[in-house]
Design brief:
Radius of gyration: 16 Å
CATH class: Alpha Beta
Distance between the termini: 45 Å
Number of domains: 1
Number of strands: 7
Strand content: 15-25%
Length: about 200
């Protein structure tokens, strides 16, 4: 067992249930195809990282999907909102004696193995590491111990989440990674080379 754990929060890829803001422009079927494309990218990025890995499903754990159960622990998200669900996942990780725990989503085509490895490295000398997203949220959060206040009283999915989280951590040593862009709406993907076969 590694002392590092990577938590991957994912939505079950079901038509009409994923990338709903993107679907308003490209339609539900294309939005689902884009989401599956992002899932596959996240798997490629994470499968060879030197850490234990756990996929947290939004609705139901899938046995025979793209996440190899020999590489990824499979768990179900638990809680009323995203903050509670993330807090439970971090609590479980620290209860299992992991020392550095990082959470990511599956919406980021620009996420790389190097970014995640940099995050673990920065946790050597920082309390928290965060990857801010251009929309005001964050695409990565890493900790060495639980800071429950970062999961409370947030309007998840809004432009204030990153700033409010940093305010919660003002007495901690925080390292910020490069700002990246989630693929949430059409403007996020229309110019990106990786998505051209979806938008043309």
């Amino acid at each position: 067992m590694s002392k590092n754990l990577l938590l991957i929060f994912t939505r079950n890829p079901e038509l009409g249930k994923v990338k709903t803001r993107l679907a308003k422009t490209v339609g539900a079927e294309k939005a689902l195809a884009i989401y599956k494309f992002l899932l596959a990218h996240t798997k490629i990025v994470t499968e060879n990282i030197t850490a234990d890995k756990a996929v947290y499903y939004s609705v139901k754990i899938r046995k025979n999907d793209l996440w190899n159960s020999e590489i990824y622990q499979k768990k179900k998200q638990f809680g009323e909102d995203l903050g509670i669900r993330m807090q439970h996942a971090f609590q479980d990780a620290f209860a299992a004696d992991y020392e550095k725990v990082i959470i990511i989503g599956t919406d980021l085509i620009d996420l790389s193995k190097e970014i995640i490895e940099e995050a673990y490295l920065q946790l050597e000398t920082n309390d928290v590491v965060m990857g801010p997203a251009q929309d005001g949220g964050y695409y990565l959060l890493g900790m060495k111990s639980l800071h429950p206040n970062v999961f409370e009283k947030k309007s998840w999915g809004t432009s204030t989440v990153s700033a409010e989280t940093l305010n919660d951590l003002k007495d901690k040593k925080v390292h910020l990674l490069h700002e990246l862009n989630d693929a949430d709406v059409f403007d996020d993907i229309k110019e990106h080379p990786a998505f051209q076969h979806f938008v043309n």
